[in-house]
Amino acid sequence: MNEASMSIIACAFDLDGTLVDSIHDLARAANLARADAGLSPLESDRVASFVGDGAASLVARVLADSHDAEYTGSDIQREGMLSFNAHYLAGLHIATRFYPKVLATLHLLRERQVPLALVTNKPERFTLPLLRELGIDTHFDVVVAGDTVSNKKPSADPLLYAASRLNVPTSQLLMVGDSINDVLSARAAGCPVLAVSYGYGSDVESLNADAVIHSFADLCEFLDLA
Ligand SMILES: O=C(O)COP(=O)(O)O
Ligand SMILES: [Mg+2]
């Protein structure tokens, strides 16, 4: 066990790009929203590069096909949001799959009675039904979605809220995520953080996480649970 992992007693997980590969369902809904706006479809990889700051940012970026677009509530964005919401809710779990070893590792952590949080920027209206459809809605002691508290990741708030609900100090709550928002949120909250290399974040090695893991199963080794 390394120094960073020695005092960890609880874990918080990001959802998209960490526990599940959801990009095909996100891209389908995004492209249907583009079609409704008279726009041509984008490649899945392009949509993946827009994921990480919640649904409103995703819709704004997808409609503009630009990383710089922000949600302003313009008519076209509001229409796009309604369209994306309807299409994504209709197909949350068509092609969404757990990454390898996720389910077995979550089961092991629960077996060892490690308190678990889910901390995602995905809004509750998608997160809660998706967790149910995936069969992991009862795996977490607390679910913090993108609109559960006032500020999303990269704010410290979702992890501070998770730590207080789990009744653990943030210094002993490990965050595991795939993007810069996960690392920034963890650093702001005082949580140790692991980055996964297989998700939607680009250049994770440069994020300055405590460690980068290439398979979810490596978490067990990091926590000395293997
Ligand atoms: O919905 C998003 O933007 C990303 O969600 P995540 O925080 O689970 O990666
Ligand atoms: Mg993510």
Let me know the average pLDDT.
95
Q: Would you count the extended β strands for me?
A: 8
Fourth-level CATH superfamily of the largest domain? HAD superfamily/HAD-like
Can you tell me the number of structural domains? 2
Distance between the termini: 11 Å
Given the C-alpha coordinates, what overall shape results? globular
Sequence stretches where pLDDT stays below 50 over 5 or more residues: none
By secondary-structure content and strand pairing, the structural class works out as alpha/beta
Ligand identities = 2-phosphoglycolic acid, magnesium ion
CATH topology of the largest domain: Rossmann fold
The CATH architecture classification of the largest domain is 3-Layer(aba) Sandwich
Main sheet characteristics: 6 strands, parallel
The radius of gyration is: 17 Å
| Helix content estimate | 40-55%
List the strand order in the largest sheet: 5-4-1-6-7-8
Specify the number of helices: 9
CATH class of the largest domain: Alpha Beta
The secondary-structure element order is EEHHHHEHEHEHEHEEH
Question: In a nutshell, what does this entry contain?
Answer:
With 226 residues, the protein is of the alpha/beta class.
Describe the protein in words.
The structure is a single chain. The protein has 226 residues and is an alpha/beta fold. The protein has two domains: 3-21 and 97-222, HAD superfamily/HAD-like (Rossmann fold, 3-Layer(aba) Sandwich); 23-90, Orthogonal Bundle (DNA polymerase, domain 1), CATH 1.10.150. It contains nine helices and eight strands. The protein has a six-stranded parallel β-sheet, with helices on one face. The protein has a two-stranded antiparallel ribbon with strand order 2-3. Helix 6 (124-134) links the parallel strand 4 (116-119) and strand 5. The model has no long low-confidence stretch (mean pLDDT 95). The structure holds 2-phosphoglycolic acid (PGA) and magnesium ion. The site of 2-phosphoglycolic acid has 13 residues, from helix 3.
